[in-house]
Backbone:
């Protein structure tokens, strides 16, 4: 894995988007040159085929897809980007856990390179429900919550496998736009193909939760476990597992479950090693810690010494900047 220069800060935008996608137009113009370069690494799939796959597997998203395509100026390159079918390979890190703290709470950290993230907090009402999500590829979601109290987060599954399917952030978006309960989400995750191994954690307002191990090379497994990191088995990709400290992070999360102190205690743990990681140059530094509370449908983003809060009913669009502090001692990166 090559080393990239690390900026001194990361800019976030929180925007409110209506049914047409108009508020994303300016953002798209800023981000499209980078995403167009990224798409050059994709396996070529005819756009008619990609669109047909999207319609077959996630038909409810087609009106949103068409509105965004129109808002972004159309064209085959933009259309292929928005389908997110067989996209370029992406490897990243995450830690996630569901706890009880006067109701269910989904906590997760997202690790990647600062220049390879949207940094976008998006409230939208594209179909019949309002959502808040941290975006990826603009309309995909790394994690989010909808007005029914369904919270979802994704993590790379730790296997070096690629196959026909969709980018995981688009699947997260689909869950947020069409599901209200963990049972709804589980049924979707068993049938929608993903192009790389990913682990999804889903929690709902009733307190139900599930962890879904998905991949292009094996059937989806739904398990009732609260914590997950970046391995579905320690033997799948040992070098990656070691580089990302996936086993150590999972053990840290599991040690927090059921302890006194609730979410505040676990968030403090997320803001310290091994959960908080600082090898940004090798795309393995923590960019944010998200706290989703399904019952009030709220999101809080945490960094050491800072928190930004968002709610469905009191969402405040704004820009803000977070300092990046790379580590001096870096582990050897995994081969990719």
Residues:
């Amino acid at each position: 894995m090559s080393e990239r220069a690390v900026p001194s800060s990361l800019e976030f935008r929180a925007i409110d988007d209506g049914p047409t996608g108009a508020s994303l137009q300016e953002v798209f113009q800023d981000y499209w040159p980078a995403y167009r370069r990224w798409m050059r690494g994709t396996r070529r799939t005819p756009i008619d085929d990609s669109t047909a796959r999207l319609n077959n597997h996630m038909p409810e998203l087609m009106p949103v897809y068409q509105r965004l395509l129109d808002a972004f100026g159309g064209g085959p390159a933009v259309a292929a980007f928005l389908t997110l079918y067989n996209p370029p390979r992406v490897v990243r890190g995450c830690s996630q856990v569901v706890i009880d703290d006067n109701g269910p709470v989904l906590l997760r950290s997202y690790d990647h390179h600062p220049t390879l993230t949207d940094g976008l907090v998006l409230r939208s009402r594209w179909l019949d429900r309002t959502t808040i999500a941290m975006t990826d590829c603009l309309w995909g979601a790394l994690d989010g919550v909808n007005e029914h109290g369904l919270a979802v987060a994704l993590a790379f599954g730790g296997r070096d496998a690629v196959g026909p399917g969709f980018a995981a952030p688009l699947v997260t978006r689909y869950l947020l736009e069409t599901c209200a309960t963990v049972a709804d989400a589980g049924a979707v995750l068993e049938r929608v193909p993903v192009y790389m191994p990913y682990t999804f954690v889903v929690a709902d307002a009733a307190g139900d939760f599930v962890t879904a191990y998905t991949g292009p090379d094996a059937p989806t497994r739904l398990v009732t476990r609260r914590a997950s990191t970046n391995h579905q088995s320690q033997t799948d990709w040992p070098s990656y597992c070691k580089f990302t400290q996936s086993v150590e992070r999972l053990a840290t999360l599991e040690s927090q479950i059921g302890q006194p102190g609730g979410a505040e205690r676990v968030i403090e743990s997320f803001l310290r090693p091994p959960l908080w990681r600082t090898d940004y140059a090798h795309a393995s530094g923590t960019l944010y810690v998200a706290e989703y509370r399904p019952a009030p449908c709220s999101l809080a983003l945490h960094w050491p010494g800072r928190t930004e809060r968002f709610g469905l009913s009191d969402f405040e669009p704004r820009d803000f900047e977070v300092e990046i502090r790379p580590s001096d001692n870096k582990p050897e990166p995994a081969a990719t």
